[in-house]
Design goal:
By secondary structure, the chain is an alpha/beta fold. The protein has 2 domains: about 160 residues, Rossmann fold (3-Layer(aba) Sandwich), CATH 3.40.50; about 80 residues, Alpha-Beta Plaits (2-Layer Sandwich), CATH 3.30.70. The chain is about 45% helix and about 15% strand. It is built from 12 helices and 7 strands. A 4-stranded parallel sheet has the order 3-2-1-4, sandwiched between helices. Strand 2, helix 3 and strand 3 form a beta-alpha-beta unit. Helix 5 runs parallel beside helix 6.
């Protein structure tokens, strides 16, 4: 890991002052720890809170800020006042990141940095277009670091809690493309996932709000256990929770499929 850290620190050294956008996930959190230790007072961390951000992610950021002595600013990036974002189009992330980076840029002259890694470049990510428009730098990409190396870096720094964090896209990603983003829907998604996580402890759980209803997606072991007789009390608890939120139809339980609520627009031609 020495070579990866050295390359990353070399990139960070070129920034002058840096504003690290910290979501609470492994990528941005690990970057924030390294930047904070390397740049000291020349690094500031910025965390945006909204109904799309799980409270536990915000709590993680605040806990690390206290432990590491970060200069932390918690902001409302304003995406829930943006009708383009709330319509939940395929490029919703563009509007989310435009609001985020625009808000950060309005508050600091520091170089804005994201936790984007090499693996992210292989996917269609409209948020990267917003990053480009705001001259956001991606230190992991510049240092040639992918997701697996980010986790290895976290382990090498004894940040084991970060290294083992599961992937956790924003809660809005649970809504099928075109279904309006509302705080109430995201609260339901989060409540269902927390209930299942607390009682079943699956490796992966996603509560999807789809046009045909609510789908709860689980890894193979979790799906097997909730389908068994012992899973009946949890299924009943989920139905009661959904009913309290106005969903009176049973949830469907499915194998987890990454990004299955997302519909990318067809390519021209």
């Amino acid at each position: 890991m020495t070579g990866s850290i050295e390359r990353l620190e070399s990139v960070l050294a070129t920034l002058g002052t840096a504003a690290i956008a910290v979501s609470g996930g492994v990528d941005s959190m690990t970057l924030a720890v390294i930047a904070g230790r390397r740049l000291g007072p020349n690094a500031e961390m910025v965390h945006a809170v909204s109904p799309a951000v799980p409270p536990e992610a915000s709590a993680r950021v605040r806990a690390y800020a206290a432990r590491e002595g970060w200069r932390l600013e918690v902001i409302d990036a304003g995406e829930f006042a943006d009708s383009n974002y709330l319509k939940n189009p395929a490029n919703r992330c563009f509007f989310c990141k435009t609001n985020l980076y625009g808000t950060i840029a309005s508050r600091t002259r520091a170089t804005i940095c994201s936790g984007t890694n090499l693996d992210d470049l292989a996917d269609w990510r409209p948020g990267l277009e917003a990053a480009k428009a705001h001259q956001v730098r991606h230190p992991y990409v510049e240092a040639g670091i992918d997701k697996a190396t980010v986790r290895a870096l976290a382990r090498s720094l004894a940040l084991d809690d970060l290294a083992e964090l599961p992937a956790a896209p924003c809660l809005s990603s649970r809504l099928e493309t075109g279904i309006e983003v509302t705080a109430e829907r995201l609260q339901l998604v989060h409540a269902v996932e927390r209930l299942v996580q607390e009682q079943l402890a699956p490796r992966t759980v996603r509560c999807r709000v789809l046009r045909e209803g609510i789908a709860i997606q689980l890894d193979a072991d979790g799906l097997s256990r909730i389908a068994s007789g012992s899973g009946a009390p949890l299924r009943q608890a989920v139905e009661q929770l959904l009913a309290r939120h106005g969903h009176n139809f049973p949830a469907r339980y499915q194998p987890y499929r990454m990004g299955s609520a997302f519909h990318r627009p067809a390519a021209d031609g």
